[in-house]
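Intended use. Records like the one below are meant for learning the mapping from a protein sequence to its folded structure. Do not use them to infer anything beyond what is encoded.
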Amino acid sequence: MITLQTFPNVASYYLQLDNATSLDDGLRVIGEMKKHGFCLNVVSYTNLLNKARSLSEGQAILAEMIKDGVKPNGATFVTLINKASNRVECQKVIDFMLEAHLKPGANIYNTMLNHTIYLFEGHEILADMRMHKVMPNVATYTKLLAKTQAFEEGLTILAEMREMNVKPNVVTHTTLLNKARNWNQCVTLIDEMRVADITPNSYTYVALLKLVEEEAHIELILADMQIDGVPISHFHLNAVNKKFRSVINSQFLEHKHHVN
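Structure written out for the chain above:
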């Protein structure tokens, strides 16, 4: 619990609010500000909202904010939706935004996507975004890709991204690579990354190594890793099928020798 002091100006109260470690502490600071006649603004209420432990606590703060004549903004609702624990609660936040005549952004819908499991749920959210004329971004499509069960489903989403002029990034491609079932699918995707000038990262190579089908594949991957400046780690060792462990293990030991 923090110890409240009487501060000479509003900036000091804002600092105290920033340093509050719990909602109770934040409410005490807000109470002192009101008692001393300081006007609260959207920043102070949004800061307080960040200390809420649940959506219901956040809703209570939002109600108090509106009661005090402070109009919530986009940042307020971004903070509020992060207090949601499921898709239904996320929808409540979006409904609040629409009632306040604020257009939900892609980041709001992306948070809702975090609370879904199945691809059909993701498509429902995407349809809602379209209805409200919200442009999906790379994070939206990457989260959608994570819900696919088949590589082909992922390719369809990747194609839609391109149609919408949303550029995939390394996380997008790595997410799809984790859906691949064979080496040929991996090669197709890696080739697309190279054409798009997207450099694979360590996680990309972990996904790729899981699907090697012959020793020559490992040698190719290790050569590419060296070109891309990705060091071999235990994560890469553990990703490889056991029958190929000796090949990558010798490369790993050699790499450690060079480093040391």
